[in-house]
Design goal:
heterodimer; A: mainly beta; five-stranded mixed β-sheet; B: mainly beta; seven-stranded mixed β-sheet; three-stranded antiparallel β-sheet; about 55% strand; globular
């Protein structure tokens, strides 16, 4: 399984852009890179997924370089409600089973 | 809106009791999963199922069993609850990639 490494925590102010980089050195050719967001006392919520280059949706952007050994989740102009734990997952096996790492705690302050 | 519904939000049970945690999804997904989440340990996979009446052990199946009699319902069973099974339990479903999680059941075993 691909091991992912991401920072334990990040602090930001409202209105700033937050970039969380995840490394996944042994990602397999068929693996997608998926990010989830989790608020306290709730289940994780799917944010974005990509295979290579750049993916953007209404919530975030995902940048994946050509070698795919890392990815960066970009949250534009964060608000207090973006305070959450963000998980990078670099592996889904044949059954769609995900292995969650420790995640990055993002704290947004006024 | 698609949903994964867990029957109880909070549950308190006594040591030695048999406990049933129910999960229902309305997305006709093939795959369903049970995780537990504990501070400092992240999300750990207990069991998963990729079809009706099929089940596979995850990373920490000891003390648990599961039942999937219908496609939409996946039950987690604690045969004899113990205090070390006090945790947040999360159910999820997926079709290929990308999970939808329930809101979780916070189980306390006293």
């Amino acid at each position: 399984l691909a091991k992912t490494t991401q920072p334990i925590s990040m602090d930001s102010y409202e209105g700033q852009e937050v970039n969380i980089t995840c490394s996944h050195n042994n990602i397999a050719t068929n693996d997608y890179i998926t990010w989830y967001q989790q608020f306290p006392s709730q289940g994780p919520r799917f944010i974005i997924q990509g295979y290579k280059t750049k993916v953007t949706n209404e919530v975030a952007s995902l940048f994946i370089p050509a070698d795919r050994k890392s990815s960066t989740l970009s949250l534009p102009r964060v608000s207090l409600s973006d305070t959450a734990v963000y998980y990078c997952l670099g592996k889904t096996d044949s059954w769609g089973k995900l292995q969650f790492g420790a995640g990055t705690q993002v704290v947004v302050t006024p | 809106d698609v949903k994964v519904t867990q029957s109880s939000r909070y549950l308190v049970k006594r040591t030695g009791e048999k406990v049933f945690l129910e999960c229902v999804q309305d997305m006709d997904h093939e795959n369903m999963f049970w995780y537990r989440q504990d501070p400092g340990l992240g999300l750990r996979l207990i069991y998963f199922s990729y079809d009706v009446k099929m089940k596979e052990k995850g990373d920490i199946p000891e003390g648990y069993s599961v039942s999937r009699e219908k496609k939409e319902r996946f039950s987690l069973i604690l045969e004899s609850a113990s205090t070390n099974q006090t945790s947040m339990y999360l159910c999820a479903s997926s079709q290929v990639v990308g999970y939808t999680f329930g809101s979780g059941t916070r189980l306390t075993v006293v």
